[in-house]
From TrEMBL:
Residues 14-93 form the Rhodanese domain. It comes from Streptococcus taonis. SMART domains: RHOD (SM00450). It comes from the Bacteria. The lineage of its organism: Bacteria, Bacillati, Bacillota, Bacilli, Lactobacillales. This is Rhodanese-like domain-containing protein. PROSITE patterns: RHODANESE_3.
Length: 93
């Protein structure tokens, strides 16, 4: 699985237009999220992943990096190109 540290991800995020999926639950996402990020809760990912575009890479983030790693594993198995953001939103605080 491809991974990137939060700091390296955040530097890219500030410079480029990235496709980012936040797999935290809706309440967590609404409390704090990065601008322009799409919320795809891990609990609903198996039902919603087909809405994603297989031709573009996605950076996947959660609170600490554990749920995003699970989401990356699942999405990779479905044929998506994904990068796990290590440390997740906890690294922002």
């Amino acid at each position: 699985m491809k991974e990137i540290t939060f700091n390296n991800f955040y530097q890219l995020y500030q410079k480029e237009s990235l496709s980012v999926l936040d797999v935290r639950e809706v309440e967590e996402f609404e409390a704090l999220h990065l601008e322009g990020v799409r919320n795809f809760p891990l609990s609903q990912l198996a039902d919603a992943y087909e809405q994603l575009d297989k031709t573009q890479p996605y950076y996947v983030i959660c609170k600490s990096g554990i749920r995003s790693a699970r989401a990356c594993q699942f999405l990779t198995e479905q044929g998506y190109e994904v990068v796990n953001v290590q440390g997740g939103m906890d690294a922002l605080e």
